[in-house]
Amino acid sequence: MKKLCSSLALASMLAAPLAHASPGFTLGANVAGTSASGYGKSSDFGFSAGYRFNPNVGLEVGYESLMGYEMTLLSASVLGRYRIADHLHLLGRLGVAHWTESPTGAHNATGTDPLIGVGLSYAITKAMSVRTEYQFVSNTSGKLGANLDTLMLGINYAF
């Protein structure tokens, strides 16, 4: 019983800063353009869902349809936010991207590669923000054929 009480007390102390840090879920949608050396450019669209543990750190999963490459990309990443002015945040992202080329694509390939990103977010209201972000997927698996450079413009809603 003593160990249980000690564990609950420790968990409460560790969770207390998070309880006052405005956690919450986020949903987003974006349009983007991607380029890959030797493969031309692609017009894209995507969706994201995430959870903010506090105002500065969260997890996010995303779906991107890279129409020009007949490819889909699923990602999972840690998203860091740093306030640089009222309503304006610098974003940093580190994660992985699992991509799949459609069966009708040139290579019919699939793989998982690292993803990094940097961007800016501007809060229109407490719940709604616009975001621009540059994401880079590195061809470390060797299956992708080229690195993916993506510039996104999106809108996010926090609740």
Question: Can you give me a brief rundown of this structure?
Answer:
Helices cover 11% and strands 63% of the residues. The protein is mainly beta. A hairpin with a 4-residue loop joins strand 3 and strand 4.
Structural overview:
About 11% of the residues have low confidence. An eight-stranded antiparallel β-barrel has the order 1-2-3-4-5-6-7-8. By secondary structure, the chain is mainly beta. The longest helix is centred in the N-terminal third of the chain and has 18 residues. It has one helix and eight strands; from the N terminus they run αββββββββ. 11% of the residues lie in helices and 63% in strands.
Radius of gyration (CA) equals 18 Å
Q: For the record, give the distance between the C-alpha atoms at the N and C termini, rounded to a whole number.
A: 38 Å
Classify the beta-strand content into a percent band.
over 45%
User: What is the 3D form?
Assistant: elongated
Poorly predicted ranges: 4-21
Q: Strand arrangement, largest sheet?
A: 1-2-3-4-5-6-7-8
Return the structural class.
Answer: mainly beta
- The helix/strand series, from N terminus to C terminus, equals HEEEEEEEE
Number of helices: 1
Could you describe the largest sheet, including whether it forms a barrel? 8 strands, antiparallel, barrel
- Which bin fits the share of residues in helices? 10-25%
- Please provide the count of β strands: 8
Mean pLDDT: 85
